[in-house]
Design goal:
Layout: H1 6-39, H2 47-52, H3 55-69, H4 75-99, H5 107-127
Length: 135
């Protein structure tokens, strides 16, 4: 299932992905900041900025998605690969944080989020794209 220009497809996927991320990130950030002011506790005020550190992983994930969609691999094999690579990207953030002595991410949280990431990414791959022409 080869498509025309992979670069254009990647750019289109990347824009759509970051639009969705922005739709989620902006209200979440506003809520976090509002909650900080409401409780006069600003310990979580930098969480919106921390979430932006996932941008490179999201871009890499979009690139992987584009490459897999243009491959001849089975849809379910691609979904598994997409889930595993996204899990590896997510885990890399844990290891970098651990190396920098970030104690906000504990092992229990990482274990739960790893399972959620694997299942969600694999499921998303099977469901995407959400364009009528590609259904």
């Amino acid at each position: 299932m080869h498509h025309g220009n992979i670069g254009q497809m990647f750019l289109s996927n990347l824009i759509a992905t970051f639009k969705f991320v922005g739709i989620v990130w902006l209200p979440l950030s506003v809520f976090i900041i509002f909650d900080c002011y409401k409780n006069s506790d600003f310990s979580d005020a930098f969480i919106p900025l921390y979430l932006l550190t996932f941008a490179p992983a999201i871009a890499a994930s979009s690139l992987l998605y584009t490459k897999l969609k243009n491959s001849n691999l089975n849809k379910f094999m691609c979904a598994g690969l997409f889930g595993i690579v996204n899990l590896a990207l997510f885990m890399s953030y844990y290891f970098v944080g651990h190396a920098l002595n970030n104690e906000a991410l504990n092992l229990r949280f990482i274990t739960v989020m790893s399972l959620v990431t694997l299942v969600t990414a694999s499921g998303l791959y099977i469901q995407l794209p959400w364009k009528q022409s590609d259904a």
